[in-house]
Amino acid sequence: MSVHVRRLEARDKPVWLTLFKGYIAFYRAAVSEDVIDTLWQRLMGGGEGFHIALVAVDDADRPVGLAHVLFHRSTWSSSWYCYLEDLFVDPARRQRGTGRALIEAVYREADARGCSRTYWQTEETNATARALYDRVATKTAFVQYRR
Predict the structure, then answer these.
(1) Side-chain half-sphere of 77: how many Cα atoms within 13 Å?
(2) What is the pTM of this model?
(3) What is the side-by-side strand order in the sheet with 80-89?
(4) What is the pLDDT of residues 45-66, one digit of tens each?
(5) Is 28 helix (H, G, I), strand (E, B) or coil?
(6) What structural domains and CATH numbers belong to the chain?
(7) Burial readout 80-107 (b: 16 or more C-beta within 10 A, e: otherwise)
């Protein structure tokens, strides 16, 4: 099976929803349905600074992975930054290059916008994903804090 990455389309909503809920479950989190609905509207609406969504699709054009990306300004750069907020691959499609294809597509989107940084985060214990991330990016020494 090959993988191709394209923009999320309205017709993808049922499969996208399954993937996104799988992502939420992976992180043992809870996201309300109204927030998920708002995200969907943002993804479909687009616009400067808003999220975009990419999906990795199989040979039948069925989404098997997703990447949600947010572009934002920085106080340390005159250009934009690219934040890869969500990255998820159907567990049955892992270890086949799907995650890498999504990250490379995000890099292309960032490059097309002249972003000077593309970044993301994951749990420290997410060893499988981190093995890929170590090959396609540089781990920083920064620690995240939240309120």
Answers:
(1) 12
(2) 0.92
(3) 4-7, 51-57, 63-73, 80-89, 117-119
(4) 876 667 899 999 999 999 999 9
(5) coil
(6) 4-136 (3.40.630.30)
(7) bbbbbebbbbbeebbebbbbbbbbebbb
